Amino acid sequence: MASQVIWARDVRGKTRQEIDPEFRWNLEDIYPDQEAWREDAHRVRALAEAFAEFRGRLNTSGETLLQALQAHDELGQILAKLFVYAKMKLDEDATESWRQALFAEAQRLAAEIQATTSFFYPELVQLAQEQVEGWLKTVEGLGLYGFFLEETLRQRDHVLTPAQEELLAQFSEVLHAPSEIFEMYNNADTVFPVIRDENGEDVQVTHALYHELLERRDRGVRERAFHAVYDTYKKHRNTIAALYAASVKRNTVSARVRRYPSALDAALDGDRIPRSVYENLIGAVRESVPALQSYLALRKRALGLDELHMWDLYVPLVGEIDWKVPYAEARETVLRAVEVFGEAYASAAREGLYGRWVDVYETRGKRSGGYSWGTYGTHPYILLNYTDSVQDMFTLAHELGHSMHSYFSRKTQPYIYSDYTIFVAEVASTVNEAILYDHLLGREEDPLRRAYLLNRQVETIRTTLVAQTLYAEFEKGTHERIESGGAITADWLDETFYELNRAYYAPAVTVDDDIAHGWMRIPHFYSAFYVYKYATGISAALALVEKIRREGGDAVARYLQFLSGGSSNTSIELLRLAGVDMTSEAPVHQALERFKRLTAELADLLAAR
CDD domains from the entry (predicted)? Predict the structure, then answer.
């Protein structure tokens, strides 16, 4: 059936001023105004000039090294606040030029300071191991930096000379251009068409509304929304292919310059993750394709379809339920669910969700999707584009998990260890989603709603573990293509993405031609080798939730220690201390077994109707 598309002017929701302040985040908690921001910008420039006096002196004494490390921390804290504020101001409305200018100023400032301080890590890695070990024993206060220094010296072979690092720093702003251009295109310039809904009314398709439209019972609405989005992207496929190719080339060149075997190895090394973790993930999920096919066959039967298409993958299988969750209800439901983590967690979460940490609704020019952000010295912030769907309630729980991880890490750890690696970043968020599922299932007796929730759990595993692994396999292929001397073109990207979707979804799904263009929609592809961490994250999270279910308070205590650990140990070791060994294939296989078990339970419920 041909898609029905009606073009219209950009009508992307309300302005920010039309939204109650209760539902807008309060960035004044960071800076009261731009004047205060610029005062800190002036201050950080002065600190950077003073820091430059440490050039060539890090090896003179342990006391000098300690002073440099402390000065570097102070500089980093202020610069991070400046950058985070400017970026979140831009994310509020990317169409306003003053916001673009402020963020551009923050980028220039970051690049300028990076260039001024670029000598620091190259000089650190040249320190003699024995000398550092001696200073750690004799210089009071330096012991705090022991793990940081160990991790830094470990990467000695991949840090260039001070002159080379300074030169690379000069190019930092340019090297980020592909992701920034794509973000401006995707958030500020991309306008999807208006389609007709099930009532014959015109609906403006937006980033936030798209997923809600794919959950509509009316199949025609789903198909029209699908084609509206993909028809828009493919008009610019050659431009976006050039952007993505530039991003991949940047990654491969950077890895080569820093003497890594590949871009994948470079990405994994920062978190000290064995390459086998990435490859085992892809292998395990590939082995699980029969289980995926069984679920897709169930979906096809439950929907009563002769053919299952890509636009049929998100609609709930329980059609009798029209389950809308206003934000106020979602907020309270999530807060009750996380009470399982104890008073300290629950009270901090309540403070955040009622204390203007969250920017709730879609407004004109606002960044799409959702995230949790902030930095040391600020409370966490959450960006949403809430549309009253059940999925949006789970998104709130997800982003709150990130925020609580940040909250406890920053509260417990000194600045140097206050952040956590990307590898563990998706664990806390996915734990929250699973806990919310348990909370809802535990109080729900209606078979239809239980079936709906089981369907959502299965879908969470499919979209987080299976689909993100598909994306991870795509990223691995694109980078290997460049590293082997090949070229990335729009046609090659389309063909590669299409064949991966066929490998995962066919024959249960009729893999529509338009899905070949799906790579154009994924902002995370511009942060290379990020998406696999969603897949490993859900595997670790489900293992932790099982331990909390079985062991209660002891497991909760270990989990809170994990949340408070920041980067004070390696990612693998922090998870191991919490009770999960990610060097083993067991957590991935456990998650996939859960997928099969839930699918079977869902099939029984649907059959009993």
Answer: M3B_PepF (cd09608)
Closest CA to 372 of 406, 321, 348: 406
* Structural domains of the chain ordered from first start: 31-175 (1.20.140.70)
- Residue 406 burial class via C-beta count within 10 angstroms: exposed 0-12, middle 13-18, buried 19 and up: buried
In 3-state terms, the chain is what percent helix, strand and coil (to 5)?
70, 5, 25
The pTM of this model reads 0.79
Q: How many CB atoms lie within 10 A of CB 67?
A: 16
Active site positions, annotated:
399
Say how many CA atoms lie within 13 Å of 608 toward its Cβ: 11
Task: For the chain, give the percent of residues with pLDDT over 90.
Answer: 80
Q: Where are the beta strands (DSSP E) in 416-517?
A: 509-510
Q: Let me know if 69 is exposed, middle or buried by CB neighbors in 10 A (0-12, 13-18, 19+).
A: buried
Residue 604, Cβ density class (10 Å: 0-12 exposed, 13-18 middle, ≥19 buried): exposed
Structure tokens at 325: 């969750």
Contacts of 160 (CB under 8 A, 6+ apart): 122, 168, 257, 258
Q: What is the DSSP string of 278-337?
A: HHHHHHHHHHTHHHHHHHHHHHHHHHT-SSEEGGGSSS-S-TT---B--HHHHHHHHHHH
**Nearest alpha-carbon partner for 252 in 474, 490, 475, 470:** 475
Given the structure tokens 């078990």, which residue do they identify?
597
> What are the tokens at 164?
């080379």
Q: 533: closest CA among 575, 498, 493, 478?
A: 575
Separation CA 340–CA 60 (nearest Å): 51
Please name which of 115, 114, 123, 130 lies closest in space to residue 152, comparing C-alpha atoms: 123
The conformation of residue 60, written as its DSSP 8-state character, comes to S
d(CA 92, CA 24): 10
The reported pLDDT for the residue numbered 314 is: 93
Helices (H) and strands (E) in the chain, counts: 26, 7
- Distance of alpha carbon 285 from alpha carbon 477, whole angstroms: 16
> For the chain, what's the residue count?
609
Tokens describing residue 309: 């298409």
Per residue in 266-322, pLDDT (tens digit) is 999 988 999 989 998 999 999 999 999 999 999 999 999 999 999 999 998 987 777
Q: Which helix (H) or strand (E) is 47 found in, with range?
A: helix 34-51
What is the phi/psi pair of residue 432, to 5°?
-60, -40
Which residues contact residue 593 at a Cβ distance below 8 angstroms, ignoring those fewer than 6 apart?
none
User: Would you say 517 and 494 are in contact if contact means Cβ atoms under 8 Å apart?
Assistant: yes
- Contact 256/158 with Cβ under 8 angstroms? no
